[in-house]
TrEMBL record:
Gene3D superfamilies, per database record: 3.30.465.10
Domain FAD-binding PCMH-type span(s) in chain numbering: 61-242
Record-linked PROSITE patterns: FAD_PCMH
Phylogenetic lineage: Eukaryota, Fungi, Dikarya, Ascomycota, Pezizomycotina
InterPro entries named among the record's database cross-references: FAD-bd_PCMH, FAD-bd_PCMH-like_sf, FAD-bd_PCMH_sub2, FAD-linked_Oxidoreductase, Oxid_FAD_bind_N
Swiss-Prot/TrEMBL keywords: FAD, Flavoprotein, Oxidoreductase, Signal
Name recorded for this polypeptide: FAD-binding PCMH-type domain-containing protein
Pfam families for the chain: FAD_binding_4
Signal peptide per UniProt: 1-18
Length: 501
């Protein structure tokens, strides 16, 4: 037998492995490629290019994995994790700065490295998009990488809905593991509050089911604990009856008087005495092409045109355009998606949360934003969105630490986009200043709540640390039980469990 034949037969492989120093991570790609043929894409392949080009932000598109693995079944995922964990066994000083693999679904996280592995393997879950309804139609089972824009038409066909993303491309993998704010979240809570069960591939490669009656600690940890416990291959979601919903967008003049009215309208609709669980609303302050603009989004989860609850928004003088209609959820998602670019350049996003404030306080925070954005308005390609919206009313079956049944909580999401790396500091500092000044005011008024919603937070906001000590302790206990060697903590990037709490 020649050396070549022996290599093929695998006879000298163990010798070679022990004799060499730690192999480069690129080798993991070749191991997977040989064990799971046809599922690995190397640079320049269509599979690789398709994954890279479909990240929402340039931050993620700049990360270059050695290969992309595209599983088609839970078995593929389980085999991959086992191979990766075995391969990693001898790695000295494992660190997230040199990730072993990353997991992506919709690729809509804005911060760099959330779902793409520089020099490692990126697991692209988008092929895991199966759909089925239980016989009684109460449970929709969707693959772990499903894009909600493809899920909705399948539930719409039965006059049902699920609590998923509101823009095409946002996928179950990230949306549901980080929380999930939907049109109906004032009634049904976060997306993760509505999950009966998860099929998960653990660090050992074992496939387990987590529900209220099986692996309950894992079930709870996955409700907000992000990618710290395994790769989720299937979500079993609660379905809700829904025929048509009402809603859409109004565009208003950006003037001080209109901003006063907006602040008042938001403060009013958020008062507990005005609570209506069918309502979702957003005040979107924007800056683009050198000018400020203002949009309202209004949604009502019943087939009622122009519900009076929104009158404080619809009566504001200064509406210059509007598109409000009755639609199915999938039509709504497509219509709203068309308002946004499919991909964006450099980006940075921050979030903060609070108890409802009076109109003057909201107005003050709007002014902080406007002044700071005016100051950096010359940044090349600057576009900023400042979205004020209600917090989901959660039932508390999650680890987020948001008080259950609280109706007066809101969150403000601040997103900046720009063209050049040279402006990174200017923009991120300006957005951070807006957040800090605003939180200071809210703290003084005893309105601030520390919670940072993971799906809108930058990684530097350390969102899981805001879930509260008890929840973080519970997450660590679950991590130690299901991932004793810390694969997800040390080798797979994402929002990780906080080291101190
Ligand atoms: C245009 C736009 C609109 C948005 N709209 C909403 C909205 O209406 N409501 C809302 O709440 N949020 C919204 N978001 C935020 C969104 O929920 C998050 O960005 C979310 O993480 C996106 O999920 P993804 O699968 O696309 O993300 P990815 O970037 O692919 O993944 C996010 C994280 O989840 C992990 N992950 C992905 N798949 C799996 C899996 N199968 N198993 C385990 N871990 C996994 C990844 O490793 C990564 O750390 C929006 C974002 C954008 C850019």
């Amino acid at each position: 037998m020649s050396l070549f034949q022996a290599l093929l037969a695998g006879i000298v492989l163990p010798l070679a492995a022990t004799a060499s120093t730690a192999p480069s991570k690129g080798d993991l790609c070749h191991i997977i490629d040989s064990q799971l043929p046809g599922l690995v894409g190397f640079p320049n392949s269509t599979q690789y290019q398709d994954s890279q080009s479909t990240y929402y932000t340039e931050n993620e598109r700049q990360v270059k994995p050695s290969c992309v693995f595209r599983p088609g079944s839970t078995k593929d995922v389980a085999r991959f994790v086992k191979l990766a964990a075995d391969y990693d066994r001898g790695t000295k000083n494992p660190s997230l700065s040199s990730p072993l693999f990353a997991v992506r679904s919709g690729g809509h996280t804005l911060w760099q490295g959330a779902a793409n592995a520089e020099g490692g393997v990126t697991v692209d879950m988008r092929g895991m998009d199966s759909f089925s309804l239980s016989v009684d139609k109460k449970v929709a089972s969707i693959g772990g990488g499903s894009d909600f824009a493809k899920v909705y038409p399948q539930v719409d066909a039965h006059n049902l809905t699920v609590i998923g993303g509101r823009i095409p491309g946002v996928a179950a993998g990230g949306f549901l593991s980080g929380g999930g704010k939907n049109f109906f979240s004032r009634r049904h809570g976060f997306g993760c509050d509505n999950i009966y069960g998860y099929e998960v591939v653990l660090a050992s490669g074992e496939v387990v089911y987590a529900s209220a009656s099986q692996n309950q600690d894992l079930w709870l940890a996955l409700k907000g604990g992000s990618n710290n416990f395994g790769i989720i291959t299937r979500y079993d979601l609660a379905t809700y009856p829904l025929d048509l919903m009402w809603g859409g967008t109004t565009v208003l003049n950006f003037t001080p008087a209109v901003l006063d009215d907006e602040a008042q309208a938001f403060s009013d609709i958020m008062r507990p005495e005005n609570f209506d669980d069918a309502v979702d609303v957003g005040v979107l302050l924007g800056f683009q092409n050198g000018a400020f603009f203002l949009l309202n989004t209004m949604f009502y989860s019943a087939p009622v045109a122009n519900p009076p609850i929104f009158k404080n928004f619809t009566k504001i003088p200064g509406i210059i355009a509007q598109s409000l209609n009755l639609s199915t959820v999938s039509e709504r998602v497509i219509e709203d998606g068309a308002l946004l670019p499919p991909t964006v350049p450099r980006s940075f996003e921050l979030v903060y949360s609070f108890h409802n404030a009076d109109a003057q306080t909201y107005r003050k925070l709007i002014q902080f934003w406007q002044d700071e954005i005016t100051r950096i308005s010359k940044v090349d390609g600057l576009a900023v969105q400042y979205l004020l919206q209600p917090m989901p009313v959660t039932n508390g079956t999650n680890v987020l630490g948001v008080p259950p049944n609280a109706k007066d909580l809101g969150m403000w999401v601040l997103t900046g986009l720009w063209n050049k790396a040279a402006d990174d500091d200017t923009v991120t500092k300006a957005l951070t200043t807006i957040l800090q000044k605003s939180e200071r005011v809210l703290l003084e008024k005893n309105l601030s709540i520390g919670f940072k919603y993971l799906n809108y937070a930058d990684v530097t906001q350390n969102p899981i640390s805001t879930y509260g000590g008890e929840n973080v302790a519970r997450l660590w206990a679950t991590s130690k039980k299901y991932d004793p060697k810390g694969l997800w903590q040390k080798r797979v990037p994402g929002v990780k469990l906080p080291s101190t709490y």
